[in-house]
Automatic annotation (TrEMBL):
Species per Swiss-Prot/TrEMBL record: Marinococcus halophilus
GO BP, one annotated term: putrescine biosynthetic process from arginine, via agmatine
Membrane spanning residue stretches: none
Span of the signal peptide: none
Protein name per UniProt: Agmatinase
Cofactors required: Mn(2+)
Record text on cofactor binding: Binds 2 manganese ions per subunit.
Keywords per UniProt: Hydrolase, Manganese, Metal-binding
Gene: speB
Cited CDD domains: Agmatinase-like_2 (cd11593)
InterPro entries reported for this sequence: Agmatinase-rel, Ureohydrolase, Ureohydrolase_dom_sf, Ureohydrolase_Mn_BS
Pfam families, per the entry: Arginase
Amino acid sequence: MDAFDPAYTGKVFIGSSASYEDSSVVLYGMPMDWTVSFRPGSRFGPNRIRETSIGLEEYSPYLDKHLENYSYHDAGDMMLPFGNPAKSIEIIKETAGRFFADGKFPLGIGGEHLVTWPVMQAACVHDPSVAFIHIDAHTDLREDYEGEPLSHATPVRKICEKIGPENVYSYGVRSGEKEEFDYARTSGMHFSPFEVAEPLKRDLQELQGRSVYVSIDIDVLDPAHAPGTGTAEAGGITSKELLEAIHAIAASGVHVVGADIVEISPPYDSGDQTAIVAGKCIREMLLGWTK
């Protein structure tokens, strides 16, 4: 896996032991925060989540499943050129494409939210009919941010243009420009601001039998539940509701082909509160969405 750091120190997410060849799931870090508009630091998120995962149980009482029965490989963090979003995107796209081609379930850890865009490009090559579930505090529907089209404020707009807004399902949003909200409400995308679990459960009925990619921005949580993020936004959901949404997807019968969780920023995470939440979400995603 030449896209990954050869000096990787061996920190892995709890329970990861299978080789790449023998695994059905690949957990990987995308340590990029080159375009953040407020507070950087999410490039440190993947490793801190791994470090705090040692405090997790490997058994999920929600799903009555245990990680020991799942084969997943933690590949470590990608080597991404500092300050170069265009080159970083190409590396992520190529690497994610390899995961899909090898029949793996890619489960990515960000990093800023722009990292989702190249993974979705690779997912579309693998399955052109893939739908996109977006759980986030922010619309991420700008065409550019201060003149820059490669920004963590633009990935969902790019995905809408790639797969059609009617295939994009967005939940929990409570911040954005008026133009972004206007686009969300008129473009044909499925847009459920402020709430997550209940509208998601409704929409999952029409996604039955479809392939979906799921992206969770940790700032969908209220800062009381997840202070360690670059652009915290008051008025969010609880960690309990986010887990409810993850479990609803698991129970729905939709075919999740890949996922990511992004924007965990350890420099602002007193007591590792946000990393611990993210680690638990990853455990539930592994057990609920993969085979």
